[in-house]
Structure formats: C-alpha cells, structure tokens
Design goal:
heterodimer, A: about 210 residues, alpha/beta, four-stranded parallel sheet, three-stranded antiparallel sheet, about 25% helix, elongated, B: FAD/NAD(P)-binding domain, 5 domains, five-stranded parallel sheet, 29 strands, about 30% helix
Chain lengths: ~210, ~725
Amino acid sequence: MITTSLKPLDEILDSVCPYHKVLIAGCDGCTQPPRGLREARTLSQLLELAGRLKDKDMEFKVTTVVKQCDSFLNASALKPQMDGVEAVLSLACGAGPQIIAELFPDIPVLPAQNTHFIGAEDREGGILEANCSACGDCLLALTGGICPVTRCAKGLLNGACGGARNGKCELDPEKDCAWELIFQRLERLGKLDRIKELRPPRDYQAKAWRLTP
Amino acid sequence: MSKVAPQKDRAQVEEVVDEASGKVCLAPCQIACPLGMDVQRSHARIALLPPDAKEANRQIIEIGDELYVKNPMFPICGYICGLCEKECNFKDQTGAIRRRMLLRFLADYYLPYLETKPALASPTKEKVAIVGGGPAGLMCAYTLSKRGYKVTILERDSRLGGALWYIPRYRLPSKVVDTTLNNLVRIASMEVRLGVSMGDGGKTLDDLKKEGYRAVFIATGTLIPRPLSIEGKLVAGADLEGVRFGLNLLFDVNQGKVSPQLFKGNKVIVVGGGNVAFDVARTARRLGGDVSLVCLENEDKSSKDGIPADVEEIEGGGEEGIKITYSRGVEEIIGEGGKFKKIKCPRCVSVFDEKGLFNPKFDYSDAIYLEGDVLLITIGQAPERAFYQQEGLLDEKGRLDLDQLTLMSNLKEGVFVGGDVRRVGFAAEAMRDGMNAAESIDRYLKGENLKSGREKGYEVAPIPKRGSYKPQPELIWAPVQERLNFEPFEKGYTLEQAVEEAKRCLYCGPCKSCKACVALELQSEIPEIEFDKDLCISCGNCAFYCPYGAVKLDSPGGVSVDVAFCKACGLCVAKCPALAIELEHWEKERISALVSQLVAEMKPPKILVFRCLWAVCPPQDGELAPNVGAIDLPCAARVDSLHILEAFQKGVDGVLVVACPEEDCHRGSGSREAQRLVAKLKERLDQIGFEERLHFCTVSRRNPEQLDEELRQFGQRIEAIGSKKEKK
C-alpha cells in the first residue's frame, strides 16, 4: 500500500485558512495507517481548535471515499457533499487530490498528507517500511522476494557493493544490507545459484506513465 | 461463534457454549477444579476489594457465600487443594496464581462468620441415606439437602470428616475442619448418626430401605493400608515390632492418641513417595524422630518414574531434615529379637512399564541396607470390600460395577457409590463424586433420565495477552526450628497481599462465565460489541489489537466477534479508523452527550476526567470538585481521541485520562494503549498549543488519594495556563 504521513498542522492550517467551509475527505483505500472517517473527524477537530486560537471561524464537513484514486468512486462519494464547499482537504496519497482536482476543476484541493513510498506497516513496532519503487521491471523472483532496487541504498542489481559492515549498509548503519538479506534468503531456499545470473542494467523506459488495464 | 444461556439473575454466571463444538468455554482453572468453582469470579472480586477494611470484610463474606453455594467445604480446600493451579495459564509465565492461598484467605475471614450463617430451609422431600461422612458423603448430603431432601449420614467413626483426619494438623488445622463441618451439618439440617457400621453384623442396605430411605450413597473411602509387596509377593517381616502403617499413625496422631515425643531418639524409615508418605515422614519428624524416606521413584519429577509428591512437600521435608533415598524398593524387612532392625533395598531400575502401568523392576545385585528403629509403610491404601461383596455390588472380577457417569450401581437400583472407594484421589475429587451422585439421586427420585445433558466437553479461551507478568509470590513458611510441631506453618495472606495476588489473574474465562463486574455493579451487564459492516474497511486493526483473540477477520470484507472471548474493553472501537464498531452502553453518541451534559454543569476551570472504572472506587463519585466532571469507561482502552478533542471543542479547559497502572490492567493492554493514544494526541495538540491541557496518569483502586492528588496537581496546572479561549 501507499504510506503517508500527516503534514504539520500549521501548514495544513495555512492552506485552509482562506476558506470558510472545507470538506475533509478521508480515503479508505490503501493508505496506511488508514485515513478514513476517524482521521478525517480528528483532523476537523484539531483544525477547528487551532483556527479558534487564530480567531478563524471555519466550518468543516467530513466524509470518506472508498478509494480516492478511483474517479468513479470519488465522484459518487463527493458530489453529494459539495454544496457550499469552498475547498477540499484530501487525506489520500498524492493521487487522490489530483483526481479530485480533475473532478471539481473550480474548487481548490489541498493535500493533508505527504506521500512517501509503497510499503507496509509493522503494526507491532508502529513503523512504516518501503518495499517497492514501482520500477516497472520486477525481479523479486530472482532475489528471494527482497527488492534491491528499493532496499539497497545504491539500487545495485548484481550483488553487494562490499561496503556493508555487520550486515548494515555503509550509507545508513540503521539499515540492513539488502544484498546480504538476499544472499541469506536464497541460501535458505537452496537457490543460491541465482545470484550468479547476471542482470543487465535496468530498463528505465519500462517505468510507464500510462497503461491500459 | 458462541451462545449463552441467559440467567434470571443478571449477576449470576452464565454458561458459554461454543456453537461449533458444543463445548463449554471456561477458564482452565475452573475446568481443572473438580467442583467447577467460580475461580475467576472470586479472583476478580478479591482484586476489586475496596481499601476500607469494614467494607472489604463485608464483600469477602459475600464472596464466601457465593462459593459456599457450590462448595460448602471451600475453607478446607483453601488449606489442602490447589488442583486448579496446575492448569493456570500463568504457570508458564511466572508461576500459577496462588489460588489455594487466596481461597485460604477467604476462609480465614469466612470461618468466624460461618458460625452465624443462617441455615437452609428445612428439607421436606424423600429420605436419603449417606454411608460415610467424608468429603464425598458430606458433599452429597449438602447438595441433596439444598434440593430439599432429608439426609442422614451414617458414619462408623466417632466424628465426621473421613480421610480429612489423615491430613496432619500442621497442614489442616482441626479448627478449620471442625468449624466447617459442624456448621455444614447445622446449615444443611443433616441428621448424623455416628458409630454406625455397615455390613459384617451391622446394618444392611435392606435395613435402610425398611427405615424408609429411598436412595443410598455409599462412600466409605479407602481405609486399608496397602502392604509392602515385591514381584507380586508380600514382603516378609511386616509383623515385626516397630513396623506399622503410616496411615494409622496419621489417624492416631489426629485423634490425640500418640505421645508428642513418640519417636524421640528413634531412627524412622518411611517407605513411599507420595504426598501421604511425606505427611507421615513430616509427622514422624514432629514426633521427635530422625526420619528418612525411601521410594521407588527417582528425583526427576518430570521423568516417567519421577517422585509423585508435590515440590512443596519435598522441599519442606528437606528443610525439616528428612533424607530421601530415591530409586530403591524393599525386598525384605529384617528384625532382631522380634524387633525391626533394617530393610534390604534393591535398586529400582524402572517403575512404570511401556504401557504406563505400575510394574517396578529391580536390580537385585545392587542392594543396600537401611537401618532403623521404626518402619512406616505408606505406599497407598485400598477399600474395605467385604461390605460391597456382601451387598452384591461387585462384578465377577471383584470390582465395583457402577455407571461411571451417574455413579449408580449397575447391580442395584437406587444405590450410588463414589469417593475414594471408586477411585483414590484428592479430597475435591471425592467431593465431585458426592455432588454428581446427588444430581443422580435427585433425578432418580424424580423419575428423570439420569444421564441426559450431563456429559459436557470443555474448551479454554485463548490466553489473554499482557504487557508484563508479575512474578509469583513465594509461600511464606515459619523457620524450621519453629515449625516442628503441629501448628500450621504456612503464613496466610493479608488483605493487601491477597488483592495483589488476585490482580495477577489473567481472567482467561469468558466474561459471562464470571460477571464479577456486574455483581459489583461496575456495569449493569456485559456490553456487546457491534460491527457496522457497511462502514468496515477490512483494515484488520480490531483483530490485531484485540488482547483476547476474540475478533476474527472474515472474508469477504467483514469481521466477527466471539462473545465467548470478547471482554468488552472497547480497544477495537478506539482503534477502528472507519468508526465501524460500537460498544454497547459506551456508544460514541452517548459519550458525546455525556460530555455536553458535564460541560454544561461544570464550573471553570473545567476539567473532564475519562477514567477506567476498574481504577476508581465507586464512593468517590460524590466527592468530585464542582469544576471536575468524570466519565467512567469500561477500560482505559475505550478512551477515544474524538471525545477528548470534542471536550476541548465544547469548552473544557483540561482533560485528564485515568488508567490503572499497566501491570494491574484488568484487560492486559488497556492502560498501555491509552497511554500511547494520549502521547500521540499530545504530539498533535502540541502543534496547536493545547498539549499542556491533556494529561495521562495511572491510579490504583486501592489508593483513592492518588486520584485526588493527580486532580489537584492537574487543576493547578490548568489554572496557571488560564481559561481557554471560548469560541466566538
């Protein structure tokens, strides 16, 4: 899923300040942690309180969309709510506000989130981790299910750089060396020979910007 | 999914049945207790005892009264049992909850009250005779009397108690037995006839029938000590002077027939490795003997041939100077001038065979001799069969021919048999036989089916998760030099210790099988969780955070909650990003309405408290200052950021979240999760200058002053910041 984090509240507040009636639109889709109704309502409460301190009287409506990246779903959910709305504050990833902007070209759309990466949440540890760079040329089958494009700091395709110390990356000692992990996983799978397969340089043209589903 | 059979009295426990398996869901301790006592409920109630001593005392009597309904001999169990502890889910963490000590704690408060406890209504129904006044017979008599039958106990001895009189007084004081049994006889209007023997010239079952008894329960116990044998043959020399059975010694000591220094200057050898052998050895030690114990089994309790006695007995005996010789049998008892001199002990190489049967094997080439003045044989006991033979209750192989479920004789209608005579076991197991026989007799006399609905399967709930596990408290024994007498040496719990220990309980069983909170009026019923499937986005938060494994993700797109396991803490509600879950009685709208109402009533600076109802004592409600309003939640886990923000929006100046200390949290993770939620919300409030107005604290129910102090400090802080800007 797409991982996001809430923008600083004063930045959001600045962006909504010019408007009196704002619709906060959550997204139940893949944003993690989920930014649905609860988050929309919480944000409305925080902004209302913050606005009060700045003598700003703002009215917030809250709603949520099953998936903001789907223009059909977005239109069905938002259209009935748009009466009198001066701006939409979106809790979706970067795709959501763009779809809304296209759907309602006369209404400003403001992002409440910074979008980071495709990854997963470790709920136990409360940490989000990047897993995929959407490179368009997946080689996980060869690398034991660990993506070197995303998880190797240098994005190397043909083995470790040699700079790792005790399994940690030389650029970020907090980070595991992806190629060491790949080696261990392949060894465990009994497929270590795969590491010998030479991978040609990445085909950057494969990074598509428009596809036919 | 599970269903529950509703009770008339809403505070009474309910049976929770798993619909798929048809089994009853219960805490493992309650399944382990032969009497199915409501262990969890009494632990919850002890954990919630108030700090006020008088009120605590009143509640302890109430807890005792509840236990008494099922088991009027619970004060005795508090001294000698503890079978439930063997199955406690805590045993693999830091050691089982000390249920026996908690029961003893209740007993110590309850016994003085027992003298004044009102009797049950006088029985009016048919007459039933009970042969044998031990734990089985007494339990049967009580259960029948409770159901209105007139019961008569025929006891061959001069007092009731049966095998309880084999238990040394340092473990089970006479006063506990006397008070419990005398009052039991009074309360249940039992007719007791002492010194009455059955068979062998005494009464017969026909005599009882003629006297008008419509059914008989026979529980004569096992009073014949088992003699020493090897390879199927009796060991010679058992008739030497100085050789006797340990069981008889125990009985004589409890009867006061033995001089206090009987074994002074004597070397005493006890044969046997069970708890009774240790009772005998430790009794002999208290009679001045230099005691050693020899047993077939080895030292490693976890092995198949390990010594069966409890660790506490082995350790306690060791402290008292009892030397143990493991893995030795007795081949020969050797005397000199008609007096016992020594035993020949070959090495025992195996006790149980591959089939698990008792079949000891010896290496006779490796034998040692143990010398002594007294030999006490304590290797088990057997029933006296002549009466059963005479009455035609045995099959052709000489075994009791009974239905093992109903305990009715297959050979004689209306005759029921149970207790040790059926199967040698613990006192509580004998009591269970008595209870089961009473159920059968009731059905028999009503002409009902004896068996229907009685064979129940049980299953345990998943083990609740905890953030931390407090260590098991050590048992406190008097030092050895003060212990070598017949006074009890184990120190009972104080009120404080009992509360602390009860708080360790994980409350593994379904809420509806406990309902302590309802009995205490903390909540009017166990609330239910409701899911709005239309709002659910299948994110899995509820299933992930549930401390009880009660929420299951069903595909496609939905969740289900099992009432057997849900403890209604509300954590899933607070964690649901889609606002799709509600907790009955604590619905979002209802809490919102309460916030509005309190805000209108409070004087500035307005402080709203969200508190866990387990963390505070109810009488405090009336004592809140006029600027303070409180909303009680089923657990701090139900604290919701929406309601905290809403309170600020409505004009509250400060919000205080009150949880139990993490290690006391009734729900395992409620306190910790509430603390996290507040910390996260404070981060956000910090960005808009509200951070100081929200505060989290933990208070213990037993220290109400803590909350007062927290409120005072927080109040000062809020006053210093000044009243919040009102909405224009």
